[in-house]
């Protein structure tokens, strides 16, 4: 019988060439494995790979036909229940609870198939159980409660505590965490980490990959009764671990790749289908062989519409860089990633993070796994944040510029007033009046710059339809002169909002002025208001449409950037601040403003604001 390897001096248990058969069925075949002291070691593999058999050999429920086990540097041909417990090995099984439902929690802790439990020791056992529960912080658990009064998840929790009560050197959890409640699961995780710190070892048999990465120090993949890999968890990528643990490949080679690929998916299709990511699997010819349920639901794919189709027909892009990326990744069979890529899946356009993972059997290329993370909402939010930051920065600049201009402007205005009343003469007074008007215009420009900043303004209750109508009355002669027809369709009832009257007028004026300037040869402007409910509250919506040329920009929302303008040329004195100021005013009043080009012609600005409480 072999002695322990000198390289495994820190090992607690070593399996040496272990084989186990169930009749003609091989469960374990020449298996070798090391479990170290003070570690959480995970065992993963497909159903029937031999995971539970491994645990039952250790706890004395099964005897291997060949090989031996080294525990604490001592060899053992096999173990029974008593010898395993003397060595401090406890196992929580996935199928059978070791609890007696008619006994109390304390009775179950004390009994546990050990020498006859004497009734006269019940009081002592109850106190010992209470001390154990208090030690671990479970003061809310009454050890005198019969087990059959607990619900099933709590019984599972108590079953784990019962094995912890024995202070095991090695605790085996055979898929024992899966049915716990979230609260109890978090408690057990804390206990397992504490046990490891105290020098105990835990063998975690599981099919939940997330448990491996949350708990384990090392992981072993078991396949066909043999250990395929043992390594530290940090050294193995999650997708690669799934590939190794839950894929099947036959022994045939290149002449039967399609049959091999069928075998790859056959046994583990349920696992792949239920992964919470958009997953597409293609074979060595880039023909789609599997799309998991999450991806199928996300992109409304029907089974017959994609199976055996080329991957490039289902996942496409209008961006040449993305197409080149996919061609390169599939042609060179390498692991690649492309972030925030504009793609189309089954005619649905999204912004996605794409990753490709080649599948190999040794040196033989089998196919490709493609994952797609939809980040459309994140991409839009990121753009909004960037836009807001730009506007905030220019707002600070605008406030400083306005302050500096106002000081000399006030001095000039004062001197002009003094000259008007000091000196006489009709021509002089006429010149001074003209200068006063020009300075008033400059003052308005400065006021606009100050509005662009976040300075405090007084708000009041304003009836929106009335404000719009008053503005239209002032502009009707200009509209007639410019050959522009304005149609206003107000909400039937009064629309009240809390705002600064001058600021909301400025927004309306900026939008109307913008439409006037893009229609020098005439056109139409349509304005409407309405009240709608959203998220339990009432909101106000204003829309401004014109029949101009629309916004000639790939991203129409760029018009809200400061100093951005598409109106240039002779006679244009547009500085591109009007819509930026409007954006800032609406945002300050907890509203939104957006723009879109219309299908026929022109564009539409949409503003939403909260309605004033009645």
TrEMBL record:
Gene3D superfamilies: 1.10.287.130, Histidine kinase-like ATPase, C-terminal domain, P-loop containing nucleotide triphosphate hydrolases, PAS domain. It comes from the Bacteria. Its EC number is 2.7.13.3. Keywords: ATP-binding, Kinase, Nucleotide-binding, Phosphoprotein, Repeat, Transferase, Transport. It catalyses: ATP + protein L-histidine = ADP + protein N-phospho-L-histidine. One of its GO terms (molecular function) is ATP binding. It is an enzyme of class 2 (transferase). Residues 13-249 form the ABC transporter domain. CDD domains: HATPase, HisKA. Pfam families: ABC_tran, HATPase_c, HisKA, PAS_4. Residues 400-613 form the Histidine kinase domain. This is histidine kinase. It comes from Candidatus Moduliflexus flocculans.
